[in-house]
Write a structure and sequence with these properties.
Layout (H helix, E strand, L loop, with lengths): L3 E5 L6 E5 L4 E6 L4 E6 L2 E6 L4 E7 L7 E8 L5 E7 L8 E6 L5 E8 L2 E6 L5 E6 L4 E8 L4 E10 L6 E7 L5 E6 L3 E6 L4 E7 L5 E7 L5 E6 L6 H6 L6 E4 L6
Length: 252
């Protein structure tokens, strides 16, 4: 929401930031200095050293009340982006799209409300996805040849007391780590059994996403948000809006 993108050097703690005229909703590294970025209404390439932005494709130009939300590159290198209403209250207004190799944008799922976390299994045969208000994590069969998905099923159901599942990542054991908006934690889930394996408390009610990084990708980075919190709530959760780093009990 701050319309900024930050690069952190974990070793030195140095941070480099760039500002943009629009919301920065999701980014995906490509193994070089070039990033794929989802702005509110557009997917683009960003050359980090120069800050140069090269547009790829508009997202839902006919729906000005919508914006991009979470996005990731899949194992085949295709970028996925979900959308939602800007107010967050448009039930069924969002969708999930896949950016094809030719630059076309394919709508894969429609009727979503807040298209959110994504992850893929290490064998590249399963894609996990979250539409937050459903309080569910879905699994799909995934075909890396064309990044198509099929056979949707619910693998995790989240109780109301644990808020909404938001951003998500996966570890080398195939377990999911899900940020829980409204519950102040990241939860560790087994998608095979649907069992909750543990939680990491952030004490920030709006815990928004997580990913692995650092040496051997053993560190779990967790983002949090101040969005919608009152002055009283911020006083109780002063670290809201901070980035956290923890080393969970995992093989990754």
């Amino acid at each position: 929401m701050g319309r900024q993108l930050h690069a952190l050097d974990p070793a030195s703690g140095a941070i480099e930031s760039k500002s943009f005229p629009d919301l920065v909703c999701a980014i995906a590294p490509t193994g070089s200095a070039r990033l794929q970025v989802a702005f509110a209404k557009e997917l683009a390439w960003l050359d980090w050293p120069s800050g140069a932005v090269t547009p790829i494709v508009a997202v839902e130009p006919d729906l000005p009340g919508n914006r991009c939300n979470d996005g990731k590159r899949d194992p085949a290198g295709r970028f996925w982006i979900g959308t939602m209403s800007r107010s967050g209250e448009g039930v069924g207004a969002g969708a999930l799209y896949r950016l094809e190799n030719n630059g076309a944008l394919t709508r894969v799922l429609s009727g979503l409300t807040i298209a959110n976390g994504m992850a893929w299994s290490s064998d590249q045969r399963t894609m996990y996805f979250i539409d937050s208000p459903t309080r569910e994590v879905w699994a799909f069969d995934f075909d890396p040849a064309d990044s198509s998905i099929s056979n949707r099923r619910t693998v995790i159901r989240v109780t109301e007391s644990m808020g909404w599942p938001d951003g998500m990542t996966i570890d080398t054991e195939g377990n999911l780590w899900v940020a829980h908006w409204g519950a102040g934690c990241v939860a560790h889930w087994d998608p095979v059994t649907g069992r909750l394996l543990g939680t990491i408390a952030t004490d920030c009610p709006h815990t928004s996403s997580c990913c692995f990084g650092g040496v051997d990708e053993r560190d779990l980075y967790i983002t949090t948000s101040q969005l919608g919190l009152s002055a009283t709530e911020l006083a109780r959760a002063p670290h809201s809006g901070c980035l956290f780093r923890v080393v969970p009990n995992s093989t990754r």
